[in-house]
C-alpha cells in the first residue's frame, strides 16, 4: 500500500438543474501518473475545477485531503499555494509577453517591488532546460508553436514548486512529435517525484503512460484500475466509459430513405490559428433524403470544424474538396450561398453564434429569411408575426408571446427558436450541431420529434453529437471522426457504443 | 439597494424592458418641463419646446446618424469635424459664387463618401471604429484649415432666406425650416430602422455580430452603410449649422460628437449595440436642449452648469442601463 498524495471523497457538485458530479471518489498515489477517462460531459473537467479551487469550498459537498491535510480551497491561489497546478486545454498564456514574463506572471522575481530582469531570465532559462525547450526566455510567446507553449505552461508550473500537476487534454492540439515529447517529459517529471493527473481522450496515450486510471461516467466514479496489476487495455477502458443501458428516451420512427441528397468528397480544412495543421483531413460523407445521419467524434476531432467549413466556409483556411447536392456539384462560398442551395447549419453554441439574445422571438426566427419576408427592402411585419406565431405553435415554443426576448427563454426553447429559424429557410439539408446540448430531458424528446419530422418531410439531417446514446437512438447511419479523418461508417443495426468508441479513438497509425 | 430592487421589480411587472430607458427619458423630460414651468414665468409654452428643436436641429440630425452607428455596436468620433468641414466648404464655395443647391448636394456627397471610406476601413481591415473615426476626426478638422483659418461669412440669398424664414404653425407657434428638416430626417430614419431589412440588419449586427454572420446577414454591407449614413447626417447637420450661424468656421462644432453620443446614450441606446430607439435619441437631444434653456432662464448660472448637468445625467443613465441589462447578463454568462 503506497501513500496517497491526494484523496477526494464523496464529491458532489450540482448546477441549477443538473448534477455534474455525484459522490465521486479519487485517490492518487504519490509519484504516479494517474489518468482520468470518460466521455464528453462525464464530469472530468468539473472534478478538476473542484480540486483546483475554481469552484471554491462550500460550492460542493465532499472532502479533499492533500498531503495528509484537509483542504478547503477558496480559489486557485490557495490550491497553487498548496502545490496543485492545473494546465487547462486552452492555454492561459499572454501571447504578447515573453516566455520568462509568462512563467513568472503573478510570481515575479523582484527585490522590494522592483523586478530583477536578470534573475527572471536566468531562472526561466533553467526551467526551460528542465522541460527540454530550447528557446530564449525573452522570446515572445506568440512566436512559438502550441507544443512549445504547452512546455512553457509546464515550466510555469515547475516555477511554483508544483507537487501535483493536472493536465487537461494536454495533447489534444499537438501533433504526434510534440505529443511524444510531452509524454516523455511527464515520465521525467514522475521520476523527479512530481505526481501527475492527466485527462485524455487518447486512450493509446493513456495506456502508454499512466500508472493507474480512474473512469468517470455520468458524474460518478465507475472504477479505478491499476495499469500494472489489472493489465488494462484500451477496450477495457472503453467498456468502462460507455457501460450504460439505453432506455426509452427516443420517439419511434420508421425511416423512409430516398436517393442521395448531399455529398462531401475529400474535404480538407486547415486551422486558421495554427498554420499547417489539418483540422479536417480528406473527409467524405453522404446523406440521403429522409435519412438521419450521425457524426460522432470526441472533442477536437473536427466535427464542428467540418460542418462550419461546409456551411459557407465559416471556419478554416485553404479549404479543399467537393460538395454535391442531388448529384450536382455546388460551391458554397458564403452563408448566403448555403441558404440559397438549401443547406442549414444550427450551431453548437446557440448563445454566441445562433441567436441574438437581446432580440425577441419573432425577429430571431425571421433573421435568416428576411429576403423571403420582404419586398424591395421593406419587411412585411404582419407576415413576420404570422410566421413566428405559426412556429411558436408547431414547435411548441413555451413563451408568453413572440415578442418575448430570446435571452430569457430556457435552453430547450431557445433551441426551438434556432431550429424554427432554419426550417423557415426551407432547407433540404440540415446540419444540427449538438442539438440537445444543455437541454433538459423533456425538451430533448421534443427536439428528437422535430428531427424525426424533418426526416419524414424528405430532408436530409446530419446530427453532430457528443452523446453516443443519442446518436444510437436517433440515427440511421453514423460516421465516426477522429483527428479530422472519417474512421468509420456504421449502419444502425451494427452500431454499438463500444464499436463507435473504438472508431472514435482510433489514432492515425 | 432597495431602489435598485424596486427598479428590477418595475421591469418585471410592466412593459417589455427594452422600452423602459426611453420611458425614463420621456418622464425626465416631462418632469424638467413641468419644474421649469412652475419656477419660471413664460416657460411652459409650446414655443419653448419648438425653440429647443430650432436651436438643436443640427445636433438632432447628427445624433440620428450616431444612433445607427451605435446600434451596430460602433462609434463615430468624426461627426463634429465633418459638421465643421461642411460649414467651411459651403461658406467658401458660396463665396466663390457656386449656386446654393449645387453646394448643398456636393457637401452631402462628400460627407457620405467620408463615412463610406471610414466604414470600409473599419470592416475590411478589422480596425476598431474608435481609432478609424478618430483619424477621420483629425482629417476633417485639418481640411477645414486648408480652406481658411478665419471665419467665412455666408451672404448667399438662398442660405440667408432659409435662415430667416419662420414657418407659422398657427397661434403664436413657429419653427425654422431646419427644425422641419431635422424632424423629417428623424421620421425617415425611424422608418428605415423599424421597417426595412437594413434596419433589421443594424439591430442584428449590434446584438451579436457572430451570429448575424452565421445567419447569412450582410454584416459587411450593414457596417459600411451605417458609417455612410452617419457621414451623410453629419454633412446635413453641417448645412443646418451653416443656416443657423450663417458662417463657416473651422473651430465650430468642437466636441459635438460627444454631445451626440451623450444624447444617444441618454435616449437609452446600449453602447454595446443591438438595443435602442430613435425616439430615445430625439428625447435625449430634447433633454440636453432643455437643460440649456433652463440655465438661460435661471440667468445667474454660468453656462458651464449645462456640462455639469449633462455629466450627472450621463452617470444616471449609464447606471440605469446597467441595472436593467444586469439581470439578463448574469443569467447568460
UniProtKB/TrEMBL annotation, chain A:
Annotated membrane topology: Peripheral membrane protein
A GO cellular component entry from the record: plasma membrane
SUPFAM superfamilies assigned: P-loop containing nucleoside triphosphate hydrolases
Keyword Nucleotide-binding belongs to the record: yes
Keyword list, A-Z: ATP-binding, Cell membrane, Membrane, Nucleotide-binding, Repeat, Sugar transport, Translocase, Transport
CDD domains in alphabetical order: ABC_Carb_Monos_I, ABC_Carb_Monos_II
UniProt cross-references to Pfam families, sorted A to Z: ABC_tran
MF-aspect GO terms: ATP binding; ATP hydrolysis activity
Residues annotated as domain ABC transporter: 6-241, 262-508
Repeat in keyword set: yes
Subcellular location: Cell membrane
SMART domains noted in UniProt: AAA (SM00382)
NCBIfam families per record: GguA
Record-given protein name: ATP-binding cassette domain-containing protein
Automatic annotation (TrEMBL), chain B:
Cellular component GO terms held in the UniProt record: plasma membrane
Gene designation per UniProt: yjfF
GO molecular function terms attached to this record: transmembrane transporter activity
Protein localization: Cell membrane
Topology of the protein relative to the lipid bilayer: Multi-pass membrane protein
Coiled-coil intervals: none
Record-given protein name: Sugar ABC transporter permease YjfF
Pfam families reported for this sequence: BPD_transp_2
Top-level taxon: Bacteria
Keyword field: Cell membrane, Membrane, Transmembrane, Transmembrane helix
Transmembrane segments: 20-40, 52-71, 101-124, 130-148, 169-193, 224-246, 258-291, 303-324
